[in-house]
Write a structure and sequence with these properties.
The chain is of the alpha/beta class. The protein is about 30% helix and about 30% strand. It is built from six helices and nine strands. It catalyses: a hydroperoxide + 2 glutathione = an alcohol + glutathione disulfide + H2O.
Length: about 180
């Protein structure tokens, strides 16, 4: 299945709101695909799960490290998507010290499913998760996609060869020249 445009979904996010009393000043906010991707050039990378080894040691940290260089290539925002809920994504971002990457929860896996990237990870006790990939999205249209090899349910390995930040940055630099 070849997808040329990001699917139309509503993401369930949490946003800080100082008018909310108590120790957890956040409220729910629905964000549509149009709000997130419309009129912007976005780099999105998707990974199997918050707090998991490769995602936490390499995938997210390297995008955070190269954020300024990626933005300098005409990118408006860098998004990390995972089939995790908003609470997990928030705590993972805090634990990782994320300052620049927008952590986008796909709690129900709807976006991931419509992208054709939803896989079973029952062999690890994860349930349904995202296959690892990255993409450049320009005003909702997919400009370039890097999908890890070996896409399959319950894959015994976790390929991490092409969805990394360095591959993305190299692509953006070559596309700009």
């Amino acid at each position: 299945m070849v997808i040329n445009q990001v699917p139309d979904v509503v993401f369930k996010t949490r946003v800080r709101d100082e008018s909310v009393a108590g120790p957890n000043p956040f409220r729910w906010q629905d964000r549509t695909t149009q709000e997130i991707f419309g009129g912007k050039r976005i780099v999105l990378f998707s990974l199997p799960g918050a707090f998991t080894p490769t995602c936490s040691s390499t995938h997210l940290p390297r995008y955070e490290e190269l954020f300024d260089e990626i933005k300098a290539q005409g990118v408006d925002q860098v998004i990390c998507l995972s089939v995790n809920d908003a609470f997990v994504m928030f705590q993972w971002g805090k634990q990782q010290g994320v300052q620049n990457i927008f952590l986008l929860p796909d709690g129900n896996g709807e976006f991931t499913r419509k992208m054709g990237m939803l896989v079973e990870k029952d062999n690890l006790g994860f349930g349904m998760r995202s296959w690892r990939y990255s993409m450049v999205v320009d005003d909702g249209k997919i400009e370039k996609m890097f999908v890890e090899p070996g896409y399959e349910d319950n894959c015994p390995t976790d390929p991490f060869e092409v969805s990394d930040a360095d591959t993305m940055l190299a692509y953006l630099k070559s596309a700009k020249s």
